[in-house]
């Protein structure tokens, strides 16, 4: 990488890090204590007890690589302040030291994100590269989830980007390696597993050496998994680990309904129950049905059939089928990013006990597509807004409220203007240029520039370039978001006061799930019916 | 035919991002093309920034076919009239498509772009492949639409500045949880308490309800009114925070948030609009991009951000009013300038630092009028009227005026406070000023030196008042005050820093060294005041300083400025 490119990334990352440092004293969720407890577990217990420890309610439920990562961090933590890594005394410990340490560890881990975004943008033109850097590094979702709420998503998404970059460059084995490692860090990323499997099988394992290649691939993946789970297998801990990783005891929806199909499902269910009761039909409405805070073993439905984990899993795989078929029939490396995004979208829409934070898994990789075609850029603006907005309820304290709003609005403003200006105008110019063979016709016919340029002007309409990014529906929908927010913040407390406290949250998740559904359906449509849809393929990709 | 036209326009516009790249790198590359092309360039592009672009272009062109260049220049001279014509007529197209239009000098721009058209075109005939590469390079650069989205740019910068202010406000303030006097936060809160619960006449008087020894009001009436308004707001939302007597040292999450928001809202209502107007007026001759840069420099000024939103004060109001007054001066609205500056003075007496500049400039303007005496009278009446309105409740008796005045000028506090990077403090290592002279003597000495130091620019302004000269005069007199005046507080460094930032595009060097120096001198102060949260605050402070530097080095943000600094 050239020095100037490094400088570019470094300066953007530096500004982002400044903002992140200033975010240190903001609210942090229980996830903060969860991760602190993991530091304590991995530091003070032998490996075989990591997944069986129950001294705190925040048990270790991420795969082994993440545990090793915490173990590595705990070395520094215990040097800094031994209380952080103390299993009993450390519980609920939230001094300045521990806050600063954990916050900074997230910022440092974000180096992976920067690395990933550098890799993936390596072959892009300067403008697109800058767009991608801006889109990923300043993603308000990452700020909210990682640096306020507290998690380590940026670093994991960086690995996903690294994997996608390797695939786009044709290094299938490396891509597979990174993905396997990623899944061993956080198993929620496994949703894209089928896509990776089919794609690598069809794209990598072919040619005369296909059997050999298959074994190489399998060896790599199995190697990663063995490194991760091997020590636990040695201590016969695997069943315990599996039990922790897949807690199906939890309900279909999280406490705050992630904006997916199940949120709509519940809303329809409740609405139907209420309507039927009004009519006079007797409906057996479960107790907790209308509290909105559904944590527990089951999520009661009044009318519609109960959803089981099996149904949810089948739906995820079923909706993923079109892109699996595509990956089987035309394993093109240019399409991988879109398939992966779609796979995460399916996982988000139909998955079991989905967190709203999982929407980042599709938004961040989708920015790769966004900088390559205008239509995807519009979709990106749309989905980034909806996904980030759906994260707002995570931060409920008053002091973060203006910050999260400003983060989102500023990001959307900057991205919108940059996309509109860097892709629309010159995207057209590119296509013109491509159609026109370079010749010296200029020398012969210099005087007709005038007329034709006029025609071009009309066609281009430079004034409202930004507005073309989104369709009418999308614009109206986004305006509706503002109304939802105004209702939740102003009208609801003013008119209803303490009645129906769940309504604003339900409205947010219901409204956002419509947007998510729209995005998901759009992606499905593109994959199913517009195969090879790349309006402006990049030259290096075409060539390859 | 068609092909020729479209490819021509595309190559014109695709050359333009190249300007950006060349400036973005901020390093002027020496051209090693032959003399012919150089002379041609000199004649075709007199303005600064495009010429570098063309130079680079030529550089690239010369790399692909060096020998052709000589012929090329001649061909360009011949063909230029033909090429110029269509582009001449199609100004609008160029304007919409490119960012060239930002400089007022149209003619030179046009010929430049025409030449560039020719260059790219001509070189392509020789080596198509290289041309393709070159064009690809040029079309690539990231472009921010400074011209078509000027207000979006300004909005984005303001929002970022506001975001940073909110983030700084999340942190602790100086003196938090340190009884008995806490810090400036408590002083401001106490003034709200006093102004809300006692009659106006008692605000500056020692009464049973108003113990002047505990953070007695020592700013002019406008600060008192501002405290009153904010106090009413706090009283409505959280009465316990401003309850009389019982609320000393009162602080919880919500009251802190409310207090922080009183500063944030003052900032956005006073300082931000004033700066926007100032930039739009003073830098109206500059390109939009430079305006945006100037705006960013002023709004992201770390010193002000930290003092107001970290340490807790309302400097944004008095400084915002002063910036507004400066904008009025630039607009030639002298009466408006008088009103705004009087208000600024009435908010914080520290604004006196700018008084010599305003006095000299307005006097100079009056001398330019047909009847100077009438002019001076008009302005004088305006100032007196503004003061009278502000001081109205205290004008009932001579005694009450004196009472307020004595609160405003506490001579007993001494020559300087603990850590001030000014003349008296630095030289006290050699001469023990406080022992050699008596306090009234020192006050007189300080006054003499201050006036002496600010005299040159005052004379200049009286003789030849001008907008830029006025700003320099502001800088000069505020520096004179900061260095030589009596009883300077380290926070006063804000006052010289402000005009230095306002002059960012004229005098980048001044800004370059004043920001770190101001930061450094404040560091003692932050250290002193915030021992508890020392680590976090130190870090945050350093980073904000770094942020400015980063923004400077950051390509899309800074082009001309960085060039000036680096060359």
TrEMBL record, chain A:
Compartments, as annotated in UniProt: Endoplasmic reticulum membrane
InterPro entries according to UniProt: Glyco_trans_ALG6/ALG8
Residue spans crossing the bilayer: 131-150, 177-202, 214-235, 247-268, 336-355, 376-395, 401-419, 502-521
Broad enzyme group: transferase
Coiled-coil regions listed in the entry: none
Keywords tagged on the record: Endoplasmic reticulum, Glycosyltransferase, Membrane, Transferase, Transmembrane, Transmembrane helix
Enzyme Commission code(s) on record: 2.4.1.-
Recorded topology in the membrane: Multi-pass membrane protein
Name of one Pfam family that matches: Alg6_Alg8
Pathway(s) where this gene product acts: Protein modification; protein glycosylation
Family that this chain belongs to: Belongs to the ALG6/ALG8 glucosyltransferase family.
Protein name according to UniProt: Alpha-1,3-glucosyltransferase
Organism: Sphagnum jensenii
UniProtKB/TrEMBL annotation, chain B:
Enzyme Commission numbers on file: 2.4.1.-
Protein name: Alpha-1,3-glucosyltransferase
Membrane-spanning parts: 151-173, 261-283, 375-394, 469-486
Region (Disordered), start-end ranges: 23-57
Pathway(s) the chain acts in: Protein modification; protein glycosylation
Annotated InterPro entries: Glyco_trans_ALG6/ALG8
Family stated for the protein in its record: Belongs to the ALG6/ALG8 glucosyltransferase family.
Membrane topology: Multi-pass membrane protein
Subcellular location: Endoplasmic reticulum membrane
Keywords: Endoplasmic reticulum, Glycosyltransferase, Membrane, Transferase, Transmembrane, Transmembrane helix
Biased composition (Basic and acidic residues): 26-35
